[in-house]
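Form 7-S
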Amino acid sequence: MRERDIENYLRQQVKNLKGIAYKFESPGNAGVPDRIVLLPGGRMQFIELKAPGKKPTPLQLSQHRKINKVGFSVLVIDSKEGVDEFITSLAGE
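Output:
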């Protein structure tokens, strides 16, 4: 399975929740997470998508740390099951 397949699946699952999964691009800031997910009720999550078994690069991890330092988390997802776990976790919020 390719990262693109997981990304498309995430987008559809977020849409089903009436949310938005914006593609995150920040010129001059390589390595930012792939998606910013906005959900009803004012919830937001940065998502880094990877192909199954792949890990974030050192540059991506550096960006994740910067985001963490200002109080936000970055969730790394590498499978459709990971997307399902993320969606299921929203029910507990």
